[in-house]
Design goal:
Elements: H1 8-14, H2 26-35, H3 47-57, E1 77-80, H4 85-100, E2 106-109, E3 116-122, E4 129-136, E5 139-144, E6 147-151
Antiparallel strand pairs: 1-3, 2-6, 3-4, 4-5, 5-6
Helix pairs in contact: 3-4
Length: 153
């Protein structure tokens, strides 16, 4: 009878590959962690921050590269998950244009009941799907990490 399948780490050791060791890196990580400000001391997130975070995390530099102003590469958008492609792209461009010039603070929150995430299907290797907005009551709003980014106040 054959042997039971081995766990990934066991397979690597069996092939003679070294197992990563974090032991030596822990003191450096602890030093770095102590140097970071407390979360409560971090400045509030602004609409501009959200636009720049979306630019930084967009697949294939879809919104350009920082520090340039985020600009959608329309030719790389194949389709939008809900609604018209042109209208979806125009709505995203309007939101980014407003957000990049705004210093208003935002609150991140779960989308309300009935909100619909809007995904952009891209003409990039692997044809990724990128969700950067949520339709709330017929209006597109920016979202990052699945959280709605609404101006506070």
């Amino acid at each position: 009878m054959g042997q039971a399948p081995r766990a990934s780490g066991e397979r690597q050791r069996a092939r003679g590959k070294p197992r990563p060791s974090w032991g030596a890196r822990i003191p450096a990580l602890e030093t770095l962690q102590r140097a970071l400000p407390a979360v409560a001391a971090a400045p509030p997130l602004t609409q501009r921050d959200v636009a720049l975070l979306l630019q930084w995390t967009a697949p294939g530099k879809l919104l350009g590269s920082p520090p340039s102003v985020p600009c959608l590469r329309r030719e790389d958008v194949l389709a939008v998950s809900s609604g018209d492609r042109e209208q979806g792209m125009a709505a995203l461009e309007d939101l980014l244009s407003t957000a990049i010039s705004a210093a208003r603070e935002v609150e991140l929150s779960a989308p309300p009941e009935g909100a619909q995430p809007i995904a952009f299907f891209l003409d990039l290797p692997g044809h990724p799907e990128w969700t950067c907005g949520v339709r709330v009551g017929g209006r597109l709003e920016l979202a990052i990490g699945g959280l709605l980014a609404r101006a506070s106040g």
